[in-house]
Amino acid sequence: MIIVQITDLHIYAPDKDKNYPIDTAANLIKCIERINNLVPRPDLVLATGDLVQSGNKDEYDRLKSILDLLEIPYFLIPGNHDDRNYLKAVFDDHKYLQNNEEFCHYVIEDYPLRLIGLDSIEPGKVGGKMCQKRYAWLSDRLSEAPDRPTLLFLHHPPFNTGFPEREYEFAEVEKFQKIVVQNHQIVKIVSGHFHRGIETKIGNSSVSVCPSTAYTYSLSFLSHKVYRTEEPPGYQLHLWNSKNQTIISNPLFF
Ligand SMILES: [Fe+2]
Ligand SMILES: [Fe+2]
Asked: What is the DSSP letter of 198?
């Protein structure tokens, strides 16, 4: 099973591109061309938030017209730049989003790896938020299938790098990590938000941050500040081998 992950697309409305130094839509189109030409063909695409820049409807209309160029199924979760209501309204053909839940979270059961999408946003906040309700939902979903290999995908990485205003509060990270340690079926957690490839481990699970298709940020714990770099945009492949229960992740740049 091959999963493609794209993240932090930051799509603008067409008339706003001229004010912005990076053509994020052109980058996404280029990325989709690469994905459509991958051999063997991947099974699905996960887009892990910051899908648009300002959360406006015209941005989502543009985003949909681009993402529909994908020749394989794709699944969306929001990031801190997104608006849940417009996301659900514009992608009304994405049934997994139409669940009348307060949060954009869901489970995809159709693949060898069970996929759980989490909503880590709080409107108006740059950093992540996982409240009691969301932890309860996640715990319930995990207890439904304790022996089924599972991948979690969400926007905000569930670990701290020393940038409090861009991350979860420490207590929330502690709680998240406790759930992961207690649930051995979680083989992988994939996220975005930091705009660069990062790898770590929580309990039994490997954790990665995917490069952005839009632009790359500096490594915050080296520079002690975050700035945009000249490094190329990218995406990530995750290869799940059911036979030996391993997952291999590989970032690709374009
Ligand atoms: Fe972002
Ligand atoms: Fe973000």
From this structure: E
The domain over range 2-253 is classified in CATH as 3.40.50.20? no
Separation of CA 200 and ligand 2 centre (Å): 19
Q: Quote the ligand 1 centre to 143 CA distance (angstroms).
A: 31
Contact 216, 233 (CB under 8 A): yes
243, 8 in Cβ contact below 8 A?
no
In terms of Cβ atoms closer than 10 Å to its own Cβ (0-12, 13-18, 19+), residue 145 is middle
pTM of the model: 0.96
SS3 53: coil
Ligand 1 mean position, distance from CA 233 (Å): 12
Q: Which ligand is nearest to the CA of 157?
A: 2
Q: Convert the pLDDT of each residue in 76-131 to its tens digit.
A: 999 999 999 999 999 999 999 998 889 999 999 999 999 999 999 999 999 999 99
Query: What 3-state DSSP class applies to 123?
Result: coil
- Ligand closest to CA 10: 1
Expressed in angstroms and rounded, the spacing between residue 81 Cα and the centre of ligand 2 is 6
Q: Please identify which residue in the block is written with the tokens 């053909």.
A: 93
Find the ligand nearest to 6 CA: 1
- Find out whether 233 and 215 touch, Cβ atoms under 8 Å: yes
